[in-house]
Task: inverse folding
């Protein structure tokens, strides 16, 4: 499994010719490593519908004629906009061609913008993505909560991508605790330094994890990691 950081909370994950993008906030993202029109993917996976995660979902899905995989209400919204969508719910999993997705609980909020309105978009989620026998956990914009311990009890994690920006999500100290509970092969920090409100020191977070015996790695936009 190859993981490429596209900026903010967006990851491009690929194995054996199958490529999926998670939370493709690219246009308007000062960190973005790629333009939406350049992406060739088999699916778009969403943790929730906020602008900085939903991003270029509709453009990418339409251009690639691929499904958006998301919580049911958000999938229905995407379908109403003319793209393919596959709705799921928390705790459910589905095998797609070349990859498997399971949605996990996340503590956050969830809405999607439709013109000048914000619409309810179901529950926010974390994503367990399995490809080529490896599993990535993308936690979305969650707060720290004790049920994160269940993720590692039920699944062996080769990588975990966690928000550290604070204010809207858990901060570095809480994310380090989550890393200790999850015990993945490597932790990738997300959702920081895109805007002044979520300014954090990624290297300091890595040290917090290393002090707990956990490998962590900050990725620059466009940088990849093989797990």
Result:
């Amino acid at each position: 499994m190859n993981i490429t950081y596209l900026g903010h909370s967006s990851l491009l994950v690929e194995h054996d010719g199958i490529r999926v993008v998670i939370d493709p906030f690219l246009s308007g993202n000062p960190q973005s490593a790629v333009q939406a029109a350049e992406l060739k993917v088999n699916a778009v996976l969403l943790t929730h519908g906020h602008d900085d995660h939903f991003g270029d979902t509709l453009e990418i899905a339409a251009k690639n004629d691929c499904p958006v995989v998301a919580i049911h209400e958000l999938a229905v919204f995407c379908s109403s906009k003319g793209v393919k969508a596959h709705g799921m719910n928390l705790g459910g999993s589905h095998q797609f061609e070349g990859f498997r997705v399971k949605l996990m609980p996340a503590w956050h909020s969830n809405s999607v913008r439709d013109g000048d309105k914000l619409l309810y978009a179901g529950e926010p989620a974390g994503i367990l993505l399995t490809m080529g026998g490896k599993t990535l956990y993308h936690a979305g914009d969650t707060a720290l909560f004790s049920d994160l311990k269940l993720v590692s009890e039920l699944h062996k994690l080769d990588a975990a991508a966690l928000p550290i920006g604070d204010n809207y999500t858990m901060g570095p100290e809480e994310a380090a605790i989550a890393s200790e509970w999850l015990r993945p092969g490597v932790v990738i920090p997300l959702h920081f330094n895109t805007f002044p409100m979520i300014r954090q020191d990624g290297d300091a977070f890595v040290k917090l994890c290393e002090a707990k015996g956990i490998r962590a790695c900050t990725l620059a936009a466009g940088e990849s990691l093989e797990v």
User: Anything to note?
Assistant: The radius of gyration is 16 Å.
